[in-house]
User: What shape does this take?
Amino acid sequence: MSKVALITGGARGIGLGIARKLAQSGWSLMLNGVRPADQVQDVLQEFSELEVDVAYCAANIGCSDDRTKLIDATQQKFGRLDALINNAGITSPGRKDILEADEEAFDKVIDINLKGPFFLTKLAAQLMKSSRDAAEVRGSVIFVSSISAEFVSVNRGDYCLSKAALGMAKDLWATRLAEFGIDVYEVRPGVIRSDMTSGVTQKYDELIANGLTLERRWGETEDVGKAVRALVEGEIPYATGQVLKIDGGMTIHSL
Assistant: This one.
């Protein structure tokens, strides 16, 4: 039986890059996003042509009822869950300086970037526990955060806080789920070429050329996809609770 992964934000950007790599390894996929299904038919067609068992569920992970709907849809479609990829997230609305921050925008970012993944993991863990088999790859939960967990952006304070807090969420769930054979990791991407970064291409082209990263290139969604695949396939064993940085050396401090 094919292993099943639920990928939030899986129909675009980094999530789609992850989905493509898992599909290449024969995983069945439940993709999630907020767009209606008729707007992601090109993505579903791509996987169908690869003979991948794929489904899509439109749901806002910041909403409790939608989280339940997403897990129920996964169970009804596949009857099991082997990996949860908490990838969906939004940037700070308006990118306001923290001196001008407003609570409505703050709450929206925290709901989607932090509360959503935390409580979705709680629901997914119940389904994953019932899917475990000693002969199979261990279950896994991946929190896709960001180098913004470490780098300050005073015009995206809510985003930075949400990503930093995912590190503790990873530690909490790694500790709680270890007894059930479910490993938990954080993948921390750097500057990745995607729709989220399309508006700042020139800025990062110049920064990368001037040494922002040790590898002087943009990160690609497939870079993150390969890292996540290695984790969920059990290729980095005995490492639950760890952070894997996919940032081209950006976070190395040097003089």
Observations:
- The chain has a mean pLDDT of 95.
